[in-house]
Amino acid sequence: MSKLKANNKILVGALILAIDLILFISFAVIHFVAKNRTELLYSQQAARRWESGDKKCTQISIFYSEDAGLKFSDIKNIRNAIQKKLYADSLITDSKSNTSLVGARSWIDAYSGHTYDDVRKDSNKVHVNVYTVGGDFFQIHNMPLKSGSYLDMKSTDVNQILVDEYVAWNLFGGDNIAGMKVWIGDDVYTVTGVVKCDDNQAAKEAYGEYNSVYVPMEAYSKASKKLVSGEDASSGLSGNDTLTDESEGTVVTCYEAVLPNPIKNYGLNTVAEAAEIHFLTDEEKESLKSSLDFGDREILENTTRFSRGSLYNRLKSKKYEVMKTNSRVYPYWENEARFEESYQIRVLRFDIIALVIFIVSFIGIGVIIYMSLKDKLHDAIKRDFWYNKV
Predict the structure, then answer these.
(1) Could you give the CA distance from residue 131 to residue 126 in angstroms, rounded to a whole number?
(2) Is residue 164 a contact partner of residue 194, using CB atoms and an 8 Å limit?
(3) What tens digit of pLDDT does each residue of 62-84 get?
């Protein structure tokens, strides 16, 4: 009987070890895939690309509702505040030239808005997502080019357009179209290049049903002003009037910055302070959960968003996210990252379950070892007893 019990314990122990081995292999494969998936999100990797040597950087994004969207004057104020803070903390040497201690740029930023429009070429017309962009947009979003180049944000000619490969094929039947002309409304735009669309699952889910183009925000602002000036004498505007906030074509619903992060949360706090965003206390957060009022803007740190700590915090607040009543605008690259976050949170749940199973299995194996040693000790004592008795 004791031999049968021992064999049963060995079988149970072997079964537990087999389950642990399968679980460990699954864990390794899932984490390898999960890490590779986040590496594909180039719009989330700007801080890593900007880092050099031992200089640590962080990427911060702020998303606004259309009603709370920023104007050019707001962008200028945020930039000045960030510049002043970095200069005061000796992270740049000249607040006007935006140079660092080694003569290179110390930080970059970008802004963007969104609208829909029709892009025309002769009789062909495509309905598209129009992303109006500015600043160092293509340093943060270095989407792969199929041909041509990105928009030249330093050019005095703002009537440029960068199109994705679907728009290029729909309008021209190819993607080698740099220098070609297209129309949006009555305005002519020169194509600078064609970008490749991501084919990973997150990108496909987030990209949307319409094709996308990118134009300098100033181009849309100029077009909007053109509709007002010269056509409405009562407005008092002329064709030579300078661009004002009131004549903007789109508002900024996404502001992004990549800046030094010498200590934890330095970059996040710097951008938040510049944008006049007040971080809530735990009590205020609980109150907001109850009222479902999550505000019309959101700031996040892209650099650490896929860390286990950040994912765990998102997992805890997941039930509240589905109840949000705000109208913040998320561009496709943020929706892509949020789709990926959902996947990574599922991986985190698997991690938690696997950890529990590992702990339980180790306890189980420990119990089996203990019982086996106990039985062996009992048998040894029993043998000694009968030996001494004989």
Answers:
(1) 15
(2) yes
(3) 999 988 899 989 999 999 999 99
